[in-house]
Design brief:
This protein has two helices and 45 strands. By secondary structure, it is mostly beta strands. β43 and β44 form a beta hairpin. The longest helix is centred in the first third of the chain and has 24 residues.
Length: about 525
Amino acid sequence: MASLLAFPLLTLVLLHSVAISTRADLPGTWDLLIADAGIASMHTAVTRFNTVVLLDRTNIGPSRKMLRRGHCRNDPDDAVLKHDCYAHSVQFDPNTNQIRPLMILTDTWCSSGQFLPDGTLLQTGGDLDGVRKIRKFHPCHAAGSCDWVELDDVELTDGRWYATNQILPDGSVIIVGGRGANTVEYYPPRNGVVELKFLADVEDTQMDNLYPYVHLLPNGHLFIFANNKAVSYDHVTDKVAREYPPLDGGPRNYPSAGSSAMLALEGDYSTAIIVVCGGAQYGAFIQKSTETPAHGSCGRIVATSPDPVWEMEDMPFGRIMGDMVMLPTGEVLVINGAQAGTQGFELASDPCLYPLLYRPDQPVGLRFMTLNPGTVPRMYHSTANLLPDGRVLIAGSNPHYFYKFNAEFPTELRLEAFSPEYLGPDRANLRPVIEEVPETVRYGERFDVMVSVPLSVVGIVEVNLGSAPFATHSFSQGQRLVKLAVTPSVADGDGRYKISCVAPPNGMVAPPGYYMAFAVNQGVPSVARWVHLVS
């Protein structure tokens, strides 16, 4: 009898050990960077000084980080804290894991952002007193005292809540959509607002046209996706240049958002491929259903093709609120989110803890690889950003109206880093180090990059430029990776190699600004060096 009782116990032990082994064998590693960042980051951006700006909303009540003494915010209209001495934005230094409070004055709830050519973070809109506000953050070294500046001499023409920003080839920024704003406008301002009827046409009874996915194509037009449809928009004439076929699988934007990314631009830069993955089923938001399964379908389209069609495939998991992060290699990390419900406060369940690696060059059915799962649910209002060292910073998750720590999915203040497989110790001998690279590069310019590699180089060492996007609500605004034309590396002695590169030809391929320059050797990226791309 004892042996019979021992059998199921032994089976459970074996199954448990198999589960642990399987999990450990999956690629990628997780690290806790800081246990309490003080705020839950709804919006996140990496600056050219290798610091990270984390931003929540102001009318959320007390955070866990105090402002500097004597720097409280007074707002008689704030329903929670009229005299607010708590930080709702912070600067994080990944090199030291130090947090510095920043002061934001107007409400940034569900706002938008983009880096300008000089490296300044432009931040627009929000709710209440922030709906028309324009703010700037001029980044500085980690030990500096830079802070938010709210502009008083200019404001948005339309209120922008749940809008999307995208830098343009001339360095200006287009601001697209928002709740009740089916228009576009520009910074610096030009001719007020322009109606974009497309946004009104795709709005349904639960909206589904908010935070549209906007990608700058290498022909200069904008690929704008909302709900389940997309157009090519000419921002010079403010006209829709073409319509794309609808994407099957239901709505894809807020409040039903999956995510989207434009794949790396390379070769002659004439081809742009857009991927849209995941989303909630229509009706989940209206019904406030937390259990409705998310779908896992992905559409992929050559946006520059004369006859574009959506190529469909499925992820291993249904996912709502996932983030798609362009890695230095050109692969895409899909991370964060839930497998059921919809966006909104306390409207999702079943966190999707497994990241995925999307490998664009593989055939349909083999493009997704399941990676090592995390342990911290990252639900509504979470973010993911590529760091210059190749890790991915994971922040936020607050599915509650205020901070709430005693809940099934609590407000999340922890910052984590996910390290893709290319950072594993077995690949350390392949990891290049950029020894020399110009700080400033002009369009079409030829320049040299000097790298060192522990093992002899075999094949081409890529030099890829990655933008620093503004991540919020499952979409990285302004995200871009450009693979430069390079010649085979030439040995220069002592493990050093010279790579001759050609800068992007124009601002349509890569808008002016600061980029993370990565050397990539056999799929292993260096730590990036910041390069200023100018006209």
